[in-house]
């Protein structure tokens, strides 16, 4: 009975860890977009 | 110049279209091969001479490899001939690694293999060299790319995101693909996109030019769904051709004793940009500005400023990010 309990707890812990990892992987945090400036064309030699 | 193009997909057909309409690269024969013979016949029929259907045994001064990534190192080895130039468009780490490993054999043959002649690697390397021109010491080079060309390119994108990424940090380090999210700002119309580490060969080629740099990295744009499903088979067939693409290179270092940096980029459909890079390289070869033997990256054989000027003539405009 004890073994089953340990296994069940391990499975719950694994499932919880997997769910948290999936959420972090899918969401995470992005960077900060540039606040000023932009792209300007350059000619090949500049 | 006698040219053999292996692969008549988005990039191969794009090279043919560019060359047929461009008087600046004199072509005596343009032979095309594809795993699907109908595609090669269709191209030859559409354009007429000098475009013909070729074979792998054809004599040619220059061979352009525009097949799926992962097949090009084997083809490059097979097509090596005395004094021949091979331009490989592959963005596969294994292709580039195997090609760089062929350096001794290629030198012995007196041939030249240019590994990574596309948007990234290719244009990315040239932009990095151009951006580094005003720096006394380069400490970091960061490449990011957005978009894919044809279906084979999309499959490679999918594989790269689930494979180990190579980074240079004074030595090679492996990082999990899909990690290291960074918001990168590309030239319009792409603008901002989240980019992740992936199995990209750019650092392997850039380290040859910037061996004293502390960090050389490469990332590619991906959506959360791409990132989450990268370990699965592709959930739906890839698109025939990606219309939106961009590349961005950030170089940091020192100038006059102070820290400085420069960000250069270009945008356009990846297939169009890659074929324009190939045609610009062919133009440099045709005008006798490229010599040497062995396996090299594109930035090692062209003058960066001059090459970007030629590329501009092909319709790919380079831009610089100014701001903070």
SSE diagram, text form:
The complex is a heterodimer of chains A (46) and B (324).
Chain A: H1 2-26, E1 37-41
Chain B: E1 2-6, H1 10-20, E2 29-33, H2 37-47, E3 51-53, E4 62-65, H3 72-79, E5 85-88, H4 93-101, H5 103-109, E6 112-115, H6 123-132, E7 137-146, H7 151-161, E8 165-168, E9 172-175, E10 182-185, E11 192-197, H8 202-209, E12 215-221, H9 224-229, E13 246-255, E14 258-267, H10 270-286, E15 294-297, H11 304-313, E16 318-323
Parallel strand pairs in B: 1-2, 1-4, 2-3, 4-5, 5-6, 6-15, 7-12
Antiparallel strand pairs in B: 7-13, 8-9, 10-11, 11-12, 13-14, 14-16
Task: Tag the structure with descriptive keywords.
heterodimer, A: 46 residues, mainly alpha, 1 helix, rod-shaped, B: 324 residues, alpha/beta, seven-stranded parallel sheet, seven-stranded mixed sheet, 11 helices, 33% helix, globular
Overall, the morphology of chain A is rod-shaped
- Which class do the helix and strand fractions of chain A yield? mainly alpha
Number of strands of chain B: 16
Radius of gyration of chain B: 19 Å
Helix content of chain B: 25-40%
Strand content of chain A: 5-15%
Given the C-alpha coordinates, what overall shape of chain B results? globular
Query: Which residues of chain B sit in consecutive blocks of at least 5 with pLDDT less than 50?
Result: none
How many DSSP H or I helices of chain A? 1
How would you characterize this protein structure?
Chain A has 46 residues and is mainly α. Chain A has one helix and one strand, in the order H-E. The termini of chain A are far apart. Chain B is α/β, with parallel strands linked by helices. Chain B has eleven helices and 16 strands. Chain B has helices spanning 10-20, 37-47, 72-79, 93-101, 103-109, 123-132, 151-161, 202-209, 224-229, 270-286, 304-313; strands at 2-6, 29-33, 51-53, 62-65, 85-88, 112-115, 137-146, 165-168, 172-175, 182-185, 192-197, 215-221, 246-255, 258-267, 294-297, 318-323. Chain B is globular. At the A-B interface, helix 1 and strand 1 of A face strand 10, helix 9, helix 11 and strand 16 of B. Strand 1 (37-41) of chain A pairs antiparallel with strand 16 (318-323) of chain B, so a sheet runs across the interface.
């Amino acid at each position: 009975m004890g073994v089953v309990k340990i296994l069940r707890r391990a499975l719950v812990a694994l499932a919880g860890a997997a769910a948290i990892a999936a959420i972090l992987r899918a969401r995470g945090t992005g960077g900060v977009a540039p606040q000023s400036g932009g792209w300007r064309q350059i000619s090949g030699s500049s | 110049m006698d040219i053999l193009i292996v692969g008549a997909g988005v990039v191969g057909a794009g090279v043919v279209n560019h060359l047929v309409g461009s008087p600046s690269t004199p072509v005596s024969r343009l032979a095309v091969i594809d795993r699907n013979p109908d595609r090669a016949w269709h191209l030859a029929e559409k354009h007429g001479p000098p475009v013909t259907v070729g074979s792998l045994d054809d004599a040619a001064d220059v061979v352009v490899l525009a097949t799926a990534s992962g097949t090009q190192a084997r083809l490059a080895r097979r097509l090596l001939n005395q004094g021949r130039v091979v331009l490989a468009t592959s963005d596969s780490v294994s292709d580039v690694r195997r090609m760089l490993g062929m350096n001794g054999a290629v030198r012995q043959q007196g041939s030249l293999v240019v590994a990574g002649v596309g948007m990234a690697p290719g244009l990315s390397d040239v932009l990095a060299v151009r951006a580094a021109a005003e720096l006394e010491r380069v400490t970091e080079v960061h490449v990011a790319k957005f978009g894919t060309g044809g279906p084979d390119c999309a499959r490679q994108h999918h594989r790269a995101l689930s494979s180990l990424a190579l980074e240079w940090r004074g030595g090679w380090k492996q990082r999990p693909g899909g990690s290291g999210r960074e918001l990168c700002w590309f030239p319009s119309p792409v603008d901002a996109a989240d980019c992740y580490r992936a199995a990209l060969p750019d650092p392997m080629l850039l380290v040859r030019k910037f061996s004293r740099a502390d960090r050389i990295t490469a990332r590619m744009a991906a959506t959360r769904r791409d990132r989450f499903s990268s370990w699965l088979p592709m959930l739906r067939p890839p698109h025939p051709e990606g219309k939106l693409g961009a590349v961005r290179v950030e170089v940091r270092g020192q100038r006059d004793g102070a820290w400085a940096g420069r960000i250069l980029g270009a945008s356009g459909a990846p297939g169009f940009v890659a074929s324009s890079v190939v045609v610009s390289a062919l133009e440099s070869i045709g005008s006798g500005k490229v010599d040497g033997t062995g396996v090299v990256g594109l930035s090692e054989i062209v003058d960066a400023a001059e090459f970007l000027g030629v590329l501009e003539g092909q319709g790919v405009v380079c831009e610089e990010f100014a701001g903070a």
